[in-house]
Amino acid sequence: MARRKLTCRKVLFRDVKSGNCYLTPEFVGDKSELSQFKDGDSCDKDWDEIFTEFKNVKTLDEFKKVSEQAQGYYRSYPKGTRRAFPVEDVGKDRFEESDLVIEETIVDIVEG
C-alpha cells in the first residue's frame, strides 16, 4: 500500500478598511504533492510560490484577484469548464495577529 500526503490550505485575509475577514476556497496540494499521483490533477506551482503572491496583497480587490489567479494554477477540470470560486466573507475578528493567515490540514491518502 502506498501512503501519500496532501496539504489542504485556505488563506484568510483581513480587510483593514472594513475589519471583515475573507477566506479563499480550499487549495488541495501543490505541484510537488500532486505530482505523486497519476489521476490527472496537477498544479503549476509549489505552495511557497503561490503564497508569495498572497504576501503582496494590500486590498480586498487584490486578494480576490490573487485567489482567482492561484486557483488557475490547479488543473483538475476538463478543458474549457474551469471557473474560479469566490472568496468567502467570514465576518469580523476571525483573527487579529496578522492581515494574512494560512489554515492547513494534512490529508493522509492510502492507495492500494
If you had to describe this structure to a student in words, what would you say it looks like?
The protein is 22% helix and 36% strand. With 112 residues, it is of the alpha+beta class. The strands form two sheets. Strands 1, 2, 3, 6 and 7 form a five-stranded antiparallel beta sheet that branches. The mean pLDDT is 80.
Descriptive tags:
112 residues; alpha+beta; 5-stranded antiparallel sheet; two-stranded antiparallel sheet; 3 helices; 7 strands; 22% helix
> What is the count of helical runs?
3
Q: Tell me the span between the first and last alpha carbons.
A: 5 Å
On the 0 to 100 scale, the average pLDDT is 80
Indicate the percent of residues in helices. 10-25%
Task: Write down the domain tally.
Answer: 1
**Percent range for β-strand residues:** 35-45%
Low-confidence stretches: none
Structural class label: alpha+beta
Largest sheet: 5 strands, antiparallel
Radius of gyration over C-alpha positions, nearest whole angstrom = 15 Å
**Sequence of secondary-structure elements:** EEEHEHHEEE
Number of strands: 7
The rough form would be described as elongated
